[in-house]
Amino acid sequence: RVAKGSFYQYYPSKVHVLADVARDEGAEARRLALVAVAAGSPALPVLAQHIVLVCQWFEAHEKIAEALILASFNTDSHTSSSPAHWHSRTFLLELIKLAQQQGALRGDVPAAELAKILGGALVASVLGWCKAPRPDALVKSMQYTLKVFLEGGKP
Q1: Is the distance from CB of 150 to CB of 44 less than 8 angstroms?
Q2: Helix, strand, or coil here: 31?
Q3: Is 135 in contact with 103 (CB distance < 8 Å)?
Q4: What share of the chain is helix, strand, coil (3-state, %, to 5)?
Q5: Where are the alpha helices (DSSP H) in 2-155?
Q6: Whole-angstrom Cα distance, residue 65 to residue 73?
Q7: What is the pLDDT of residues 58-113, one digit of tens each?
Q8: Whole-prediction pTM value?
Q9: Whole-angstrom distance, CA of residue 111 vs CA of residue 117
Q10: Dist. CA 121–CA 52, nearest whole Å
Q11: Which secondary structure element, helix H or strand E, spans residue 132, and what is its range?
Q12: CA angle 78–149–120, rounded 5-degree value
């Protein structure tokens, strides 16, 4: 048992609890994907699949999508001691680094900058979709964004 006061000392709100649960949900799959890509599997199909899965998750959790995105701005990714949280926060960056190492993405732009661009597009797309949610619209929007991103990111 955990006292309510102790619980809310760690989690400032219910949304932060949900954000932690959401991050933990796919942590093992993200970890295994990074291991596979590091072992030689092509990074770009894994990146595309990840974007689709994230968008499908948000579409399936429409009522909390906006709150979770906004709560993520208040979470310090550098102080988390949980490996599950580390993977959820840095998966995109690590995947882009691996894609650059494979020669699938241009190397003249730092991976962190590419991750900010793609991650920012995802955040903006989710927030925009939350204002007028339609089935599969978020997935289609981000697939188009990824296509444009990759065409501009070719070596």
Answers
A1: yes
A2: helix
A3: no
A4: 75, 0, 25
A5: 4-10, 14-25, 27-38, 43-60, 62-72, 83-101, 111-131, 137-153
A6: 13
A7: 899 888 888 888 877 765 544 444 554 455 568 899 999 999 999 999 999 999 99
A8: 0.79
A9: 10
A10: 13
A11: none
A12: 35
